[in-house]
Amino acid sequence: MENIVLFTGENNFTLLEELSRWMHEFKERHGEENLTRLSGAALTPSAFLNEVASAPFIAERRLVVVDDIPSFSTEESPAAPRQGSGSPSRHKASKGVPGMCAVLSHVHPQVVVLFVAPKPDRRLSSTKELLELATVKTFPPLSGEALLRWIQEAFRAAGAQTESAVPALLIEQVGEDQRKLSQEIKKLSLFATGRPITGSDIDALVFPSAEQTVWNLLDLLGDGRAEEAVLYCHRLLKAGESAQGIWTIFLWIVTSLVSVASAVSEGTTSIQGIMQATGVKFGAARALLPLARSCRKEQLRELLLRVTDADISLKTGAWKAGADSEEELFALLDRCLLSFSGTKRS
Predict the structure, then answer these.
(1) The CATH number of the domain where 191 resides is what?
(2) Were both Cys, which of 38, 97, 145, 198 would link to 93 (CB 3.0–4.6 Å)?
(3) pTM value?
(4) What residue numbers bound the domain in which 104 lies?
């Protein structure tokens, strides 16, 4: 059925962008009065057909957007609309007649029904039937070269030129969330009007996401690059990140390292085994495994004692860590970060 469409997929940003484009263009061509949006959560067959069984109002097409996939019961399906009646009557469905199929068979051919379900429950009969009937447009997450191309196209659409390394640097700083990337692309394009966007612009203007901060710091410390980790944290602090926020991330990394090192010392060497034994997530286990294998027990014990003493001092007031006096926490963070340089054997 060409007039039944399903938008689905985990790339919520691109899906919503395409939905917005559809709705905007439809209103421009056929008028706002021929665009309806419904919630599928509690939508009944009769309420649905009140919107889709009749011809558009003085237009070639009508668009009905349904958020989520309704669970139309197979015990009740609509009969064909009566002549001259504004709403269809209902009757008991024949045995074996699918609810979704029966309902959609009465959609007016000039009405386009667009279902929007990023993560539909494919176990439900309504979903299975819709997937067979509809024109399905899937929006998968972008990564790798596809995401780099999308960033380049987004910069061009914003009228901006970039150095070749900028798309990759932007992903490194922000992550792969297209919504956040889109916001940063707009900001950079406005800032660098009339000249190419550079890597220096990324460093100056783009604040890393919390998740990306975790992984960047995790990679640096996991590789034993403590001095680089200190410089990275200084850039975060200069950009407006709180020392307390970075300290919380650092404590989580140290706790994860201790857990991974403990599993390694007991003979667990695979990432999957470490995840099962410790509860540490895949990305963290993979980043910390080389360091956990190389550091000696006494080095790890010294690091843990230093960090524990520091955290106790912060909580008891021996070190200042208030929003207005973070200088002492800055210094404490530097000392603890540099402790990682002694845990990586050459």
Answers:
(1) 1.10.8
(2) 97
(3) 0.60
(4) 4-138
